[in-house]
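Subgroup meeting minutes
Present: P.N., E.W., G.H.
Scribe: E.W.

1. P.N. recapped why we're keeping a running log of single-chain structure predictions: easier to compare across weeks, and new members can see raw inputs and outputs side by side.
2. G.H. added today's entry (321 aa).
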Amino acid sequence: MRELPIRASSGVALIVVLWAVSLISAAMLGLAAILQGQLGQEIVSLQSARAGLVAESGIQMALNSAVAPAEIKQASMQLNQRLADGWKIPVHFELGDLKGEEGNLNINALLLGDKARAQRVLQNLFAAWGVNLSTSTRLIDALIDWVDSDSLTQPQGAEEEDYTKRKRMGPRNGPFESIAELKKVLGWEEMAKEARLGPQGVVNPLKKFTIYGSGKLSLLTADQDVIEMVLDLQPGAATNFMQVRNGADQQAGTPDDLVNTGLLPGVNPEVLAERTTNGGGDLWRVTSTGYVGEAKRTVVALISRNPPQIKARWTEEEDQP
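Output recorded in log:
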């Protein structure tokens, strides 16, 4: 009878041991899961970093002035074939069109210049995109308030109090420091939505603007709608100009491109000289996306090609300068 406590005690000890083993096993399994997760994250980070380096290969190729802008994509295909050699997983990059940055509308030069002209150009541009008059008027006034140095509100604009009410920061009261900053201006989102649904289907209005360059619009690289609005032309008035500009091959960025200002009806030569330039300039925007396995990284850069120089660079995840 005296052995019963010993047996009971042994039974309890066994239960304790089994419980401890279970805890240790669970802890080890949890630790293994954590280590596996961390390893997986490190592999993803490594592949992403490699994809960024592959994307940089495209940027470096675009810096080569010996490759014409129209030949960039074909040259990238050849480089991709060499790049993939020696890799056990798929590796390549995709290079977008090499576009002259001065073919975009310089928003700072426009807004900080003649205010009446800025209102007219932007109003006509937004109207061509199918944006409602009241929407564009509010946005244009807010854009002017964003860059001017005073606290006086335009008739339908927005100053600090208006942004505070919406729990947003603004305005800067100075020039835009990045194109992405345009999205912070009250009314931009509404305009972008209407432009996307408009007749031209403008998916990303930011691509029409820049804060770089001389402030003059390049007639060699600008889009038709921007040319027409900057020169106070009716929509469609520059159609013949655009057809001739692309030359016999009808491809932009090739040696046969031609700027014939005589095909821009009724434009005063003095206005042309003041607002535009016939050359493309040497400031280019290039987008390169690198792929390593399932990892993807997009790099955008502003470059000059002669001499080769990177003026600005950012990734898809960062704000556009």
